[in-house]
Amino acid sequence: MDRFDQTIQKRLAVLVFALGISAPNEVKAQQASTQQDRAASGGSESGGQNGGQDSGQDNTGQDFTSPQNLFQLRYQYKTAPGTGSVKGSIRTVTTDTLYLRSDFAFDLGSPWKVVFRTDLPFVAKDPISSDHPSGDYLYGVGDADFQAALIEQINQQWAAGGGLRIIAPTGPDNITSGKWQMMPIVGARTMLPELSAGSYFEGVVRYDLSFAGDPTKKSISNLQLWPMLNISLPDHWFLLFIQALTSA
Prior knowledge:
Helix content: 10-25%
Number of strands: 12
Low-confidence stretches: 1-52
Strand content: over 45%
Radius of gyration: 20 Å
Number of helices: 1
Mean pLDDT: 77
Number of domains: 1
């Protein structure tokens, strides 16, 4: 763990899909419900222990510590070096992934929440191997996962939580890992009202570890750091910066 490879994934399309499909309707419904509850109880728009993004600000489901009930269609594009068609040569392997994601959050009583997440990926990848020398695109269902997390809203500015993700080798061997994986996750978020209402900085630490599966496949063991800056903009727009740091 003494060296980190920095990789920046292209997530603009992910955010556009997530925002366009799930955020606006969810946000409007939550804001209307929150305002009615507060009007009935005589509360203010910004008060309460939950604070942060529960105080009438848009919540697009990107914040690990502020889970929402969402169904999302997400797209991910990434490239990585791979073996070429000529022995010893290097070519770029492209992976396109379309995710169907569901989040279900349950309020355990202030300040605690528990959230469950499932992902079903559909993958298109162009690897070259002895079983697939042409390097043409392969298509199939990727490795599905299930995640459970417990979140505490500490105060109006701070929130933190932890959870566990289990990844099952449901995809074909030629495009997925072929390994059962477990991924402990911890994260913390602080609101940044000095930037804009609803802006925040968050750090998430994950450790991906394989524990079963195809013994001929490479074992997985890597530490992942995900610092993230979210800047809220007018009219339900937001700007998100993510830097993925993965152990070598």
